[in-house]
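Sample A.
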Amino acid sequence: MEQKTVYEMIGGADTIGDLVDAFYARVGAHPGLIPLFPEDLTPVRNRQFKFLTQLFGGPRLYSDLYGAPMLRAKHLPHPITPQRAVEWLECMRGAMDEIGLQGPVRDFMYERLQQTAYHMVNSED
């Protein structure tokens, strides 16, 4: 029996795209997060799409274009506090709600993203 990836279980590129769009709409309006991002969120949104696609078992879009993720190193120039990690996760949770992502697959995805968010913390509140 063939096992599906998370990417496949949630609907692939369309669902990842919807999630990333809903997420960045929230980030763009969030006073605690938007200072960390460039004025044009499009390039960041596109990288996030590639990263989440790969993270959840889809094509290796991120690594093929940018190399190994090395997320912590890439985020070190930005002051990511525990509070900002919480706010980032709140935006992601809201985006998951908006697109109707539910059940054990959502729980799994959120847990992975939670681990990643807290791993990025590099500054005090």
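Sample B.
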Amino acid sequence: MKKIILLLLTLVSLPQLLFAQAADQVEMADKLRADGKIWVVVAVVAIVLAGIAINMFRVDSKVSKIEKELNIK
């Protein structure tokens, strides 16, 4: 469980590092912001990351359940 928390913290802090290094403006991002489509991109990325996190928690709980069953036998 600690590994999952560490991985999530890493995934949360990674975009901050990437945005901190991007000093110059990207024309495509400016165009998306001007059209208001940047929020669609942000929403899709957030949904994908949420799906990955939910899947990781489900797999972790299933593996924990199997490990408990094996330890009992």
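B remarks: The mean pLDDT is 82. Residues 24-73 form one domain.
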